[in-house]
Amino acid sequence: MEHPLSKLARRFRSISDVGLHTFDLPDREDASVEKTITVRLADVEGERNTATALIKRKYSSRGYGAHHKVPNRSNAVTFTASTNGNLIGTLSLTVDSPLGLACDKTFKAELDAYRAVPGAKLCELTRFAFDTSRPSLHLLASLFHIIFIYGTHHYNCTDLFIEVAARHRRFYQAMLGFKPAAEPRVNDAVGVTSHLMVLKVADIRRMIDEHKRDPKAAGHSLYVYFFSRQEELGIYQRLASPLAEPAAHSRWRHGARPSGAAEDPAVPGWRRRRELRRNRPVLHTSPA
């Protein structure tokens, strides 16, 4: 039987050229200039090869080796972010199946304990790389939010895992709410100590809503940069109707609203976002 992810990949192939979502963000060097960012599914060989080239370049520069590739199997889907036709970031989502997860190589016993919980369905984020060591928080939030929308509407996972190097643990814990799921352990594939972290998918929805209601109390959280409810609805409609023409809200300026849409008072302004951006950490995941 064909895996559900394979069916979804075929279904969304028709929107690969225009992307899952397109939005504008201020340039890091000049906030008065905006860059158009497009998030796509890397569902054809050429897109996966481009993403793999980025992963190899960034991972090898960190001493992780250059043998890593974007997953190309039925239980994984890869997302890319690009501007002006140039790839700037990639991140893959893998859903648990008989093929297992990448984290199983180092933390199988811990993952099996989660699998044993009735109703549990595991997924993981892997192959995370950006063409800069300090990607914009707006860009990171946009990519994570689109993956959350995609995943929750189609896969019904309960637990999201990520395997990271020690120096990146605090970022995922403070900015996204991940929690330690195991004692640190050496990842034999790259020879570095890895941390397994978990985030309840139900908590993602709660944290998005809480931070949108009161962004001033959010602290240094990535959730304050997530899309508004109107933007989220627009993205979901794009996913649900891939053959339709792009809706007006598929080209929103991040944090803005299209003509006729209800205003979201919880979206913070650029000034506050720039202030938080000063303290962002260097970001890379372990190449699980």
Q: Could you write a compact summary of the structure shown?
A:
The chain is 34% helix and 22% strand. With 288 residues, the chain is an alpha+beta fold. The protein has a single domain (4-272), classed as Aminopeptidase, CATH 3.40.630.30.
Structure characterization notes:
It contains eight helices and nine strands. By secondary structure, the chain is of the alpha+beta class. Helix 4 crosses helix 7 (229-240). The radius of gyration is 18 Å and the shape is globular. The protein has one domain (4-272): Gcn5-related N-acetyltransferase (GNAT) (Aminopeptidase). Strands 1, 2, 3, 4, 5, 6, 7, 8 and 9 form a nine-stranded mixed β-sheet that branches. The protein has helices at residues 4-12, 45-61, 104-115, 137-154, 169-176, 201-213, 229-240, 270-277, and strands spanning 21-26, 34-41, 76-83, 86-95, 122-130, 159-165, 179-180, 185-187, 192-200. This is Acetyltransferase.
How would the global form be characterised? globular
- By DSSP (H or I, 4+ residues per run), the number of helices equals 8
- Superfamily at the CATH H level? Gcn5-related N-acetyltransferase (GNAT)
Q: Gap between N and C termini, in Å?
A: 27 Å
Radius of gyration: 18 Å
> What name does the CATH topology carry?
Aminopeptidase
Helix content: 25-40%
